[in-house]
Amino acid sequence: MKVLVAVKRVVDYNVKVRPKSDGTGVDLNNVKMAINPFCEIAIEEAVRLKEKGVVTEIVAVSIGAKVSQEQIRTALALGADRGILVETDVEVQPLAIAKLLKAVCDKEQPQMVILGKQAIDGDNNQTGQMLAALTGMSQGTFASEVVVEGDSVTVTREVDSGSQVVKLSLPAVITTDLRLNEPRYASLPNIMKAKKKPMDVMTPEELGVEVTPRVTTLKVEPPAERKAGIKVADVAELVEKLKNEAKVI
Amino acid sequence: MSILILAEHDNASIKGATLNTVAAAKAIGGDIVVLVAGEACGAAAEAAAKIEGVSKVLVADNAAYGHQLAENVSLLVAELGKDFSHILAPASTSGKNTLPRAAALLDVAQISEIISVESADTFKRPIYAGNVIATVQSSDAIKVITVRTTAFDAVSAEGGSAAVEAVASAHDAGTSSYVREEVAKSDRPDLTAASIVVSGGRGMQNGDNFAMLYSLADKLGAAVGASRAAVDAGFVPNDMQVGQTGKIVAPDLYIAIGISGAIQHLAGMKDSKVIVAINKDEDAPIFQVADYGLVADLFNAVPELDSAL
């Protein structure tokens, strides 16, 4: 079966970003960009399903500016077969991304769409669920195990109370959680091969999707700073401080 | 204005997160209606009716909603939600699973994990692992919102006397089914509601060593959490993870033991009132947010702390 994997270009997870001093946005000048870690897990899962013989083709899709091609190339180097870039310079929000992905699904007819559960920039955790709603697909969010059997998929989900197992009929949307797998590194030969893999470029207009933002960011600011703390010499001092100064025990 | 809240419940009772969500709804202002969607959930609906500030409880009691599968509940929320100006749910794994699906069915955006209400259409929410706070304004007719529960003080579970009204709609998308659940059993308080949290990281070295933290937690009446590193290493289960993509906690006292303090972990606990860090690496970033830092080998310090309490 065919699997669609969505990948997003985000600030590298090691970077601590700061708001611009005028509060109009986040300072992303000269910041290292990378594939969203949860999207990397999504690609890895698709590749493992292909290695097991369950999946026959992996299509990696990204939505954003032209530079997002870099993240599609990364996905191709990790084992995706071909790429699709939906190119736009507009700030695309989760609902619009879900609509664009639906339009791609209408063309590609995948049996499964795997996405990261959230992107580490906007921290929205919405796109997979919205795509599932728009396509009428079932959804297995926050997945820690994915087992395909015939025309259904059994997904173990990480939930607040522990874990939950659901059985979904295909086609289905899966969103990845941290424990689903540990992504591999792309080998140099695979990085070279990825350069020759096909990549289609399309626009929201060609897909007939309206991407105007529904939510406007009025300002951004740093969070409240914690005042500097102190180092205590030993356990006795710690207990004394917690009892008499902080009064929390 | 009228606000629909999707209740967090287990059919028998209402979860505390619902009370924080009602508090967010009160900050928006307007009529507050709570939807209890489940199966044999009459007791939960009765409990919802007693919540302070709730004017009506809608109860959808049907086998299709038994395990609150998102495919089914989102159809119900989208149907009922058309008549409201706001739809809220706690930013729990359950709310996060269902609400975006309902928002898309209504063709509106969702605003995730709000931490304050500025006006009926403007909210603050953390982005970039909480390193940036964004003030956002929605232009949609229906505002669909998940609420970061630690940012709103819970309303009282008692004192209300809302009318309970049955909803007949039974939506069964027929595309998903519940298989089983593995629920972590613990006598300790719930991680997200505890007033004291003791958390362990990679420095704990293995799962057995968490016994030290359980002992300490029991003396303090605390919940036990963990960093992603400890969960990934298999020391403890995923429901204990505190951080950007795990649980968000804000207890009166947070004790981080053997946790270095990656930004993703800090995102989940830095709103705690008092933070204690015990780590043998004096340069560990956790000390930058700690009110009280103790540079020490946890294998000496934790038993000592345990016996001092």
From TrEMBL, chain A:
Protein name: Electron transfer flavoprotein subunit beta
UniProt keyword Transport present: yes
Required co-factors: AMP
Family membership noted in the UniProt record: Belongs to the ETF beta-subunit/FixA family.
BP GO annotations: carboxylic acid catabolic process
Record Gene3D superfamilies: HUPs
Domain of life: Bacteria
Domain Electron transfer flavoprotein alpha/beta-subunit N-terminal: residue ranges: 23-211
Subunit structure: Heterodimer of an alpha and a beta subunit.
InterPro entries (alphabetical): ETF_a/b_N, ETF_b, ETF_beta_N, Rossmann-like_a/b/a_fold
Native species: Zhongshania antarctica
Molecular-function GO term, any one: electron transfer activity
Keywords for this protein: Electron transport, Transport
Highest classification ranks of the organism: Bacteria, Pseudomonadati, Pseudomonadota, Gammaproteobacteria, Cellvibrionales
One Pfam family from the record: ETF
Function text: The electron transfer flavoprotein serves as a specific electron acceptor for other dehydrogenases. It transfers the electrons to the main respiratory chain via ETF-ubiquinone oxidoreductase (ETF dehydrogenase).
SUPFAM superfamilies, per database record: Adenine nucleotide alpha hydrolases-like
CDD domains recorded: ETF_beta
Keyword Oxidoreductase on entry: no
